[in-house]
Amino acid sequence: MYLKGLKYTNLILSFIVFFLGMYITLMPVIPEIKFSVTKAKADEYVYPTKLAPIGFIPEKGLPKENRLVIPQIGVDGEINEGDREALDLGLWHRPGTSNPVIGGNTVIVAHRFLYSSGPITFYHLDKMKIGDEFSIYWEGEEYVYKVFDIFEVNP
Q1: Which of 33, 35, 30, 27 is nearest to 118 (CA)?
Q2: Residue 128 — φ and ψ, nearest 5°?
Q3: Residues 116, 122, 124, 127, Cα dihedral to 10°
Q4: 10-residue block means of pLDDT along the chain (155 residues)?
Q5: Which keywords appear in this protein's UniProt record, sorted alphabetically (predicted)?
Q6: Domain span at residue 130?
């Protein structure tokens, strides 16, 4: 009787360890699969934009809030202002840096690996290529930027 209970417990623990191992193995790959299946297309825009193809009919007006849209990697989120805790809300404009109206270096920060992929993370930032364009909507105006160089900045 004792051995039968031990075998049953061992079987259950084996299943738990197996599925836990599968979960740990697949978690880094799932966002890549999800992105491949639901890949954002560069010619699909929600807002009227200078990047939209000719003949495109926008669905709604310019966003009222400050917003970053990178169609190539599926980023479309409100840019939050405030202290470091604003980063937990998604895209964050780092205090003390410029903004598109003033010009200069505007720093917008978002999580990449600690959160799952989505429209307010930079999970797929490595998929950006030289020549890609993206928009920042700031105080009711659209500012279009073009990637001209790609490099890593160490912390």
Answers
A1: 35
A2: -70, 145
A3: 180
A4: 78 92 83 66 54 58 86 88 85 90 88 69 87 92 91 81
A5: Hydrolase, Membrane, Transmembrane, Transmembrane helix
A6: 40-146
